[in-house]
Specification:
CATH architecture of chain A: 3-Layer(aba) Sandwich
Strand order of the largest sheet of chain A: 1-11-10-4-9-8-7
Number of domains of chain B: 1
CATH topology of chain B: Methane Monooxygenase Hydroxylase, Chain G, domain 1
Number of helices of chain A: 10
Number of helices of chain B: 7
Number of domains of chain A: 1
CATH architecture of chain B: Up-down Bundle
Shape of chain B: flat
Radius of gyration of chain B: 20 Å
Radius of gyration of chain A: 19 Å
Shape of chain A: globular
Largest interface: A-B, 15 and 18 residues
CATH class of chain A: Alpha Beta
Structural class of chain B: mainly alpha
Oligomer: heterodimer
Order of helices and strands of chain B: HHHHHHH
Helix content of chain A: 25-40%
Distance between the termini of chain A: 28 Å
Structural class of chain A: alpha/beta
Strand content of chain B: under 5%
Largest sheet of chain B: none
Order of helices and strands of chain A: EEEEHEEHEHHHHEHEHEEHH
CATH superfamily of chain B: Phosphate transport system protein phou homolog 2, domain 2
Number of strands of chain B: 0
Largest sheet of chain A: 7 strands, mixed
Distance between the termini of chain B: 37 Å
CATH topology of chain A: Rossmann fold
């Protein structure tokens, strides 16, 4: 290009932030995060505090960078060729991008649930037991069984599968499979659970069950959810962050974002005026 | 950037239609109020009866606005400014319906005056109060239609004028009653009409509060102290 247009990064830009006096303290923090896929910049200077033991929702149109940012939090972008992350993401003050950090151990602390339920082609029991086994979290067989049962209970699945723990996980319904994946994430004792559109492949009833579960899980876990459904963000989260074209436009208490957003772009997006 | 309209145009149409219905209902109520005061001041029984009959249309409008609002909430799940418009419309329709009732009640009393002779002086205070109340209703509806918070604040602040006028009307009518007990029946009717107009002022203030909420997403009641302080500063 002879005359390159100024990139959005060159414009001065400030995220609109509304403080929440009732929010829990933040242990997970991002500061000035930029992400590049090769030459293309996907995220611009994103800074946000994620309050612990509450649900934070990332919303925005496709390609706005919300999933990219979510994947930064447990370094899923590491595996993408040509992807470069700058800035700091810290958990309890520890930089997640520290070269000495064990990524496998990090992903046990920061678990993830994906858009499409992806159980291993193994039994229900093995799906949940796999993580604790490879991380050496169970002392013996009874201990492992306890972890599996309690994880399935926390994921609200135990009652439905207790008679067929050794049946294949892939034989469950979509909603059950998704809860199995949540149980699998819980089994390794994470502090943070990242969810990338966990309900987009589910019917309304299964969605409601997952949302109810998310509400219960926030007692013990810090949850970050990316969702295309704004109603879902409004229903499940305490904090909402709106992304647009790679920038964090506005963040604040969910109620404020959905009743009286301060930024025009947020308003236009949530009311269905821009795609 | 043409991003002020919804991507779903039928949703946009429904919101526009809701705002239009509020305007239409506001127009009916303004007319009813003007006619009621006019019928009272001129002792026009025919006009007064027309106001009573026309109130049915106002009630029907409120019903229609409620239905439209419920339908939008159920089918569109409005948020932010759209949600505020729907909720505020329900409130405003309710206040407009009450103003309609005040006009009807005033008109009903106007029909009692046929054949009674009294000094036109008795009605001067009410005429003045009627003008002020009508002005308040009009301003409040304008503020709502234009999402204009300054006008909304103006209506809110002016309500004390209506209240003050009512207090002075009360004193004035009391004097006429003390002068001649034969005035008591008439003056009591007029006093009730005055009370009606005072309440019209209150409902206008409610509409202004909704206009402020619509424009800013905040409550006028909780902001008013700050707004007054700002105004005092040079």
């Amino acid at each position: 290009m002879a005359n390159p247009a100024p990139t959005p990064a060159m414009e001065s830009f400030q995220t609109v932030r509304t403080a929440d006096a009732n929010a829990n303290p933040a242990r997970l923090k991002a500061d000035g995060v930029n992400v590049f896929y090769g030459e293309k910049q996907a995220l611009f200077d994103v800074s946000i505090d994620i309050p612990e033991k509450s649900v934070s929702a990332f919303i925005g149109p496709s390609g706005c960078g919300k999933s990219t940012f979510l994947r930064c939090i447990n370094r899923m972008n590491d595996s993408i060729e040509g992807c470069r992350v700058t800035g700091d993401i810290t958990l309890d003050g520890e930089n997640l991008y520290d070269a000495r950090l064990d990524v496998v151990e990090l992903r046990a602390r920061i678990g993830m649930v994906f858009q499409k339920p992806n159980p291993f082609p193994k039994s229900i029991f093995e799906n949940v037991a796999y993580g604790p086994k490879i991380h050496g979290l169970a002392r013996d067989k009874t201990d492992l069984e306890e972890i599996v049962v309690s994880s399935l209970k926390k994921a609200g699945l135990f009652e439905e599968v207790k008679d067929r723990l050794h049946a294949p996980g892939t034989g469950l319904s979509g909603g059950q499979q998704q809860r199995l994946c949540i149980a699998r994430a819980i089994a390794v004792g994470p502090e943070v659970i990242l969810m990338d559109e966990p309900c987009s492949a589910l019917d309304p009833i299964a969605t409601a069950i997952i949302e109810e579960l998310i509400d219960e899980l926030r007692e013990n876990y810090t949850i970050v959810i990316v969702t295309h459904s704004m109603q879902q963000a409004a229903r499940v989260s305490q904090k909402t962050a709106f992304f647009h074209l790679g920038k964090l436009i506005e963040e604040g208490p969910t109620e404020g974002i959905f009743t009286n957003p301060r930024e025009k772009r947020t308003q236009d997006y949530i009311t269905g005026r821009i795609g | 950037m043409p991003n002020n309209e919804h991507i779903v145009s039928s949703y946009e149409d429904e919101l526009t239609e809701l705002a239009r219905a509020i305007s239409e209902m506001g127009g009916l109520v303004e007319k009813a109020l003007a006619n009621a005061v006019d019928a009272l001041v001129r002792t026009d029984e025919e006009l007064a009866m027309a106001v009573v009959v026309a109130d049915k249309k106002i009630d029907a409008m409120q019903h229609l606005i409620d239905e439209k609002s419920v339908s939008i909430i159920a089918r569109r799940q409005p948020v932010a400014s759209d949600l505020r418009l729907v909720i505020a419309s329900i409130h405003v329709a309710n206040d407009l319906e009450r103003i309609g009732d005040m006009a009807k009640s005033t008109a009903r009393r106007a029909t009692q005056f046929e054949g009674v002779t009294m000094s036109t002086q008795f009605k001067n205070g009410l005429r003045h109060m009627g003008e002020l109340a009508q002005r308040q209703v009009k301003l409040a509806l304008d503020a709502f239609a234009a999402k204009d918070k300054d006008t909304a604040v103006e209506v809110f602040e002016r309500d004390t004028d209506v209240d003050a006028l009512y207090v002075s009307l009360f004193r004035e009518l009391l004097t006429y009653m003390m002068e001649d007990p034969r005035n008591i029946t008439m003056c009591t009717h007029l006093l009730f009409c005055g009370k009606n107009l005072e309440r019209v002022g209150d409902h206008s203030t409610n509409i202004a509060e909704q206009a402020y909420f619509l424009a800013t997403g905040k409550s006028l009641i909780s902001d008013i102290e700050d707004l007054r302080r700002e105004k005092l500063q040079p």
